[in-house]
């Protein structure tokens, strides 16, 4: 494509891979010359990032960052400082920041579609990869590039179509992403032999291809399992969120399109320690391609303690609605909450491994609902739970964070617009999560991060280390 072949001083001496001319649809030399591409923007930053890391390690490499307790070792490595994640940092009290910017700040400063209210996820991807807020023109160029790459290989279409409709959508999603390994430019180039300094350019291209194709894969699964099986064509002049909504069959609903733009933005990244992010990073550290690495992350996201939680929240809310009917009194909600807890179950959508306040992602969805669907019965139920649950959970005493997380709200918004198929919700989460984890894979390869290999011990050995007798 023309935008990838323009000479860049930052890439002198680094061979660029050749890519198919079919990817150049919608691009012109004039556009490429008038605005810097994402790849060139990132390439200019690579040398200074490498030097920054070298300097940090040389001058401060021996400094101790903290202690590791035995409780942390047996508690899922909770809180152990051991990962590098550039795109976002999660503060227990403040919430998530994307390259230092809060969700409200991103909603304010990132480019929007013409007439739109929510940020375009393309802008967040640019921000996560480069640390820079892109211009509207740069975001439109990225939208066009993803649309140009969105077509699926025929064998992927056939693979999805052959899946039984009762195979969970996330399993189908992971299967299709894994099969895209056939298209990996990195895997093909590595087999031939390439310089390490070139790794990131291939990871970049694979990531761009993968992100571009995810809505097409997701929509085909959705249509096959729940609808008529026909997927609308990608509209090359539209943005990523619109095309996803349209292929799912909701393109005519402007509010749903806006919801998709918001959903894709806020679900994208939540620092590197969560299962889907960490798994993608870990598998990528072995130089598995972005396709294989992200497929591994998707398999983690599919777990009920991670991305599947939004499906469980909605099912729990429906059961509550069936039990209490139209009685949304404080007493009725409180009784149902206690019945859930006393039955040995958790209140889904509440609590978080890191956060100790209401998840800002929950807040952004709540604000959307207050504007778009304030009288919806399910939203009123969610609002009542939000009012009562923190007090009940605090009294119960077994939840470190009694406040809602992102999963407590997303399903209610989707079902309001007619997407009632809750088993598909985690697929949408997966499409979004790619926007957060793939930038870090590219960065990892650009700065030469090594394979990840922490030390492990047996219980007996840990006992010796702490002077315990078993």
From TrEMBL:
Family label: Belongs to the citrate synthase family.
Species: Orbilia javanica
Keyword Transferase: yes
InterPro entries xrefs: Citrate_synth-like_lrg_a-sub, Citrate_synth-like_sm_a-sub, Citrate_synthase, Citrate_synthase_AS, Citrate_synthase_euk, Citrate_synthase_sf
Domain of life where this protein originates: Eukaryota
Keyword GTP-binding tagged: no
GO BP terms: carbohydrate metabolic process; citrate metabolic process; tricarboxylic acid cycle
Identification of the protein by name: Citrate synthase
Catalysis: reaction(s): propanoyl-CoA + oxaloacetate + H2O = (2S,3S)-2-methylcitrate + CoA + H(+); oxaloacetate + acetyl-CoA + H2O = citrate + CoA + H(+)
Protein keywords: Transferase, Transit peptide
GO MF terms, alphabetically ordered: 2-methylcitrate synthase activity; citrate synthase activity
Catalytic residues identified in the record: 306, 352, 407
GO cellular component: mitochondrial matrix
Gene designation per UniProt: CIT1
């Amino acid at each position: 494509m023309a935008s990838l072949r323009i000479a860049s001083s930052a890439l002198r001496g680094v061979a660029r891979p050749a890519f198919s001319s079919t990817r150049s649809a919608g691009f012109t030399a004039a556009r490429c010359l008038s605005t810097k591409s994402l790849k060139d923007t990132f390439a200019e930053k690579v040398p200074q990032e490498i030097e920054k890391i070298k300097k940090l390690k040389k001058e401060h490499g021996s400094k101790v960052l903290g202690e590791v307790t035995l409780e942390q070792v047996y508690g899922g490595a909770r809180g152990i400082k051991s990962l590098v994640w550039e795109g976002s940092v999660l503060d227990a009290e403040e919430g998530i920041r994307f390259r230092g910017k809060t969700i409200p700040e991103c909603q304010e400063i990132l480019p929007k579609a013409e007439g739109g209210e929510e940020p375009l996820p393309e802008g967040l991807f640019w921000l996560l990869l480069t640390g820079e807020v892109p211009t509207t023109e740069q975001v439109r160029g990225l939208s066009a590039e993803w649309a140009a790459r969105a077509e699926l290989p025929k064998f992927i279409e056939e693979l999805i179509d052959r899946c039984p409709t009762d195979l969970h959508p996330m399993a189908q999603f992971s299967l299709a992403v894994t099969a895209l390994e056939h298209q990996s430019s990195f895997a093909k180039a590595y087999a031939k032999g390439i310089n390490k300094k070139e790794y990131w350019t291939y990871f970049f291209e694979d990531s761009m291809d993968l992100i571009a194709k995810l809505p097409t894969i997701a929509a085909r699964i959705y249509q096959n399992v729940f609808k008529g099986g026909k997927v609308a064509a990608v509209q090359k002049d539209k943005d990523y969120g619109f095309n996803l909504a349209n292929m799912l069959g909701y393109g005519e609903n402007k509010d749903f399109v806006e919801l998709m733009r918001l959903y894709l933005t806020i679900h994208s990244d939540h620092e590197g320690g969560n299962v889907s992010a960490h798994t993608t990073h870990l598998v990528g550290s072995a130089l598995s391609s972005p396709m294989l690495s992200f497929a591994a992350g998707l398999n983690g996201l599919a777990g009920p303690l991670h991305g599947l939680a939004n499906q469980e929240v909605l099912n729990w809310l429906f059961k509550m609605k069936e039990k209490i009917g139209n009685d949304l009194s404080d007493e009725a909600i409180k009784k149902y909450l206690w019945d859930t807890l006393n039955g040995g179950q958790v209140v889904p959508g509440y609590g978080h491994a890191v956060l100790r306040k209401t998840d800002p992602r929950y807040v952004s969805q709540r604000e959307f609902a207050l504007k778009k669907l304030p009288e919806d019965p399910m939203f009123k139920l969610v609002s009542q739970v939000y009012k009562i649950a923190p007090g009940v959970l605090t009294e119960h005493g077994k939840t470190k964070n009694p406040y809602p997380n992102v999963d407590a709200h997303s399903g209610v918004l989707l079902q309001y617009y007619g997407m009632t198929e809750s088993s598909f919700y985690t697929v949408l989460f997966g499409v979004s999560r790619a926007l957060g984890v793939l930038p870090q894979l590219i960065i990892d390869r650009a700065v030469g991060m090594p394979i990840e290999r922490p030390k492990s011990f047996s219980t007996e050995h840990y006992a010796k280390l702490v002077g315990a007798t078993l």
